[in-house]
Amino acid sequence: FLAAIIAASNAGGAGSVVGDTTTTLMWIDGVNPLWVTHAFIASIASFLIFGSIGSIIQDKYHRIQKDEKSGIKVNVTKLIVVGLILVGAILTNYFLDFPALGVWIAILFGALLTTTPWHELKSSWKGTVFLMSLVATASLMPVEELPAASWFTAFVLGFVSAVFDNIPLTKLCLEQGGYDWGVLAYAVGFGGSMIWFGSSAGVALSNMYPEAKNTINYIKNGWFIILSYVVGFFVMLAVVGWNPHPSHKKGNVEELGCVDHKQSSEDIIYQDPFNQKSTITDYLL
User: Is residue 117 in a domain?
Assistant: First the structure.
């Protein structure tokens, strides 16, 4: 069930530029926020699988108590602070192209509204160091470029992101260009759920429940996460297909082959820069 919670966290942020570190990285690099939204199609499809299977497995382990009182209270003030951080990032990105400024302004303002739980640093520093080590190690990978951008490359990167941190992988993809960013966002975002250290959500939750750090048991008991990833990916391809976006970097559109040089600037037509089939059905045919 812990694997299902991690998967739910990653699936929920796959289609939003403020929902995951990888999509935020895309946004900061200049990717249009609307270009990743169709990742929610895959997220919903995968959620129906891992949510159902995870609930059934958990119910066999411990029956759900409908009338059980959890005693958990939502801190409205902290919820407002989180909202301010999101709004600040969006506004400063739109007006100043500098989202970090809005984030820090909201954080500093939020510190005046609510007490910062500094005592939680004692239990979180180990996970933070481990996550930073993963990023540093992944950055040392002897990989200077990736295979040509295609739906299959994105599909494989989902499995790679479960082992190596997805931030360096996303950075390589952004430098390469030619991807359908919604497909890639789902692949590298949700793909990290397949192993506990493949995502920040997995690292954070495993610090609370150390039993999740047993990689073999995690894969053995969370086998349905892999199934969910595969099904969600191909459902998304069947619905929207593989549609590489034009370059998000200014002055680099023609280099990627995303425009027809015979067309005027007022009559630019979209082309697939890597000559890929548009849908999984077309590819198989």
Answer: no
Place of tokens 């609510």: 114
CB-based contact 88:109 (threshold 8 Å): no
Q: Is the dihedral of CA 90, 93, 95, 101 positive or negative?
A: positive
The radius of gyration of the chain from alpha carbons, rounded to an integer in Å, stands at 20
User: Is residue 114 included in any domain, yes or no?
Assistant: no
For residues 188 and 198, what is the distance between their CA atoms, to the nearest angstrom?
Answer: 9
Query: Does residue 252 fall inside a structural domain?
Result: yes
Rounded percentage of the chain residues whose pLDDT exceeds 70? 75
3-state SS, residue 259 = strand
Angle of helix 166-176 relative to helix 181-191, nearest 10 degrees, comes to 170
Q: How buried is 285 (Cβ within 10 angstroms: 0-12 exposed, 13-18 middle, 19+ buried)?
A: exposed
Weakest mean pLDDT among 135-139, 151-155, 215-219, 267-271: 267-271
pLDDT band of 253, cuts 50, 70, 90: very low
Report how many domains make up the chain. Answer: 1
Distances (CA, A) of 66 to 17, 69, 167: 35, 9, 40
Name the residue range of residue 17's domain: 2-73+130-284
Task: Answer yes or no: is pLDDT of 273 > 70.
Answer: no
d(CA 115, CA 94): 30
Query: Does residue 85 belong to any structural domain of this protein?
Result: no
pLDDT digits (tens, 9 = 90+) for 148-193: 889 999 999 999 988 877 787 888 888 888 999 999 999 999 998 9
Q: Specify the pLDDT at position 144.
A: 60
Q: Is the pTM of this model over 0.90?
A: no
Look up tokens 């053995």; give the residue: 220
